[in-house]
Amino acid sequence: MRKDYEILGIDEKADEKAIKRAYFKLIRTYSPEKDPERFQEIRSAYERLMESVDQPENSIKLEFPADDNLAQKMFEQIQQLMQEQNYDKAVKTAEEGMERYHDVECFLYMYARCCILNGKTGKAVKAYEKLLNRYPDKVYYMSELAKAYFIRGYMRKAYAMFQKAYEEGARDTEFLLQYSICSYERGESDVSLQALDSLIDSIPQEKMCGKIPELIEAYAGVFTIYVKEDILIDKYVDSCSAFLDCVGSRIRDYEDLLLAIYFPVREASVQHGGDEIEALAERIKLLLPCTIDEEEPSEILEAYAVLEDERFSPLMKISIGAFMLLDDMDYPGESFDEYAKFMQMDAFLCQLEEWPRQRKELELLRKEYPNVYDCGVEFWDMLEESRGSKSRKSVMKEAVFSEYGKLERKYQCGHYYELYPERRQTVEQIQWDSQESGTYVRQGKKIGRNDPCPCGSGKKYKNCCGKGA
User: Fold this and answer.
1) CA atoms of 281 and 264, how far apart (whole Å)
2) Is the pTM value of this prediction over 0.70?
3) What percent of the chain has pLDDT over 70?
4) What is the gyration radius of the CA atoms in the chain, in angstroms?
5) Are 220 and 196 a contacting pair, CB within 8 Å?
6) Is 85 left (phi over 0), alpha (psi -120 to 50) or beta?
7) Which of 31, 218, 293, 414 is the most exposed place for a label (fewest CB within 10 A)?
């Protein structure tokens, strides 16, 4: 299992703010509907990292075996193992407690929670179902089962359980956010808005500073709905402005998340107009990082908008990010050039695996985001040249693998082997004589030094992936 911090893309010294910021940023790209496995991984990592902050077993009453010191010690041991992030052993200890004490509530609940933390969402679902069958009036278990269904990707079951728990009074922030996302993805915009309303209303002014990511996500959802639906927006414009007034400069700790609000607010101001919403869009724009300002090229603004557009797949967003939105802060000068080339080769290999299934997305990009399309036209042309031919794709991939393999071992942050793990084994067994020396064995047609580079950069092969070859 990859480290939780690595999954969220943050440093191991990251605090609660950084954990929340990374989580809310990632789930907008990897939704449970479009990429359930990646969402499960992200959600489990977030749950584990936040475990020390929020331990719900301390705030709910659980049934314990009467006057049994061993049961109490086993329960405390599970809590300790959870704090140590030893979830495998925590699950086994909970299972022992369930077996010894006939599925008593305290161990069944801890088993369900440990399974969520350990990424075993299917087992967690079954445990929460058993708990709810036994305690049908406990709203907390309705809420937890709805979230477990949601994380697992059982959207129909999740939606029904979210509704039931909401009707029974479930109102915790995470529940309401997931309920709104689940409802929106099912086309129930009015239900999604109701959940977001409840979330916004549930956070008093004195607690807003501790709930900034959640409120950003809530307002982003509201304005996204407004762009597509005819709803009364004035009260949300006012409450969003009041929220920004309340948190003040603390909002800058989450300025990367503000893009989630900015684009739907800007789109709403363009579509519907109105002084108040235009003023809100301008106010949010001034809070954004320096990459978004009055001088920002339109193609960069469009690229950020693509990342927020749910019609595009994670793969398309990976490609846009690799060619237009790489962060060069950690890779100055020549180091960044090499890093950028690696990420672009990575995106090219991913696209080749799926081509030509993405043609509809590419056509949508061309029509609605023409500046982004034009910036990557050489890249798209290279994909078109493959014509869906396996042999042509193979030639293109082999031309990239020699350089890609070396850089992948150096940076270890690409998506290709994560999305297609079987390719790593194939490449290591067939393409390379030695993992240490990285001696490349060409199996396809040789690419000429003056030919366009197959990675799609638009440069000649000799000046890009073939540089120094």
Assistant:
1) 9
2) no
3) 81
4) 25
5) no
6) left
7) 293
Amino acid 303 reads A
Query: Per-residue pLDDT tens for 371-390?
Result: 788 877 777 887 777 766 67
pLDDT band, residue 130 (cuts 50/70/90): very high
CB 49 within 8 A of CB 19: yes
pLDDT above 60 (res 456)? no
pLDDT (0 to 100) of residue 100: 92
Q: Where are the alpha helices (DSSP H) in 229-355?
A: 234-247, 259-272, 275-287, 298-308, 314-324, 333-354
DSSP conformation class of 427? I
Q: 73 is written with which tokens?
A: 């010690």
pLDDT tens-digit readout, 36-49: 777 878 888 888 88
What the block records as the tokens of 59 is 């705030």
Q: In this structure, what token pair is assigned to residue 209?
A: 């500073």
Scored b (16 or more CB within 10 A) or e, 210-232 reads: ebbbbbbbbbbbbbbbbbeeeee
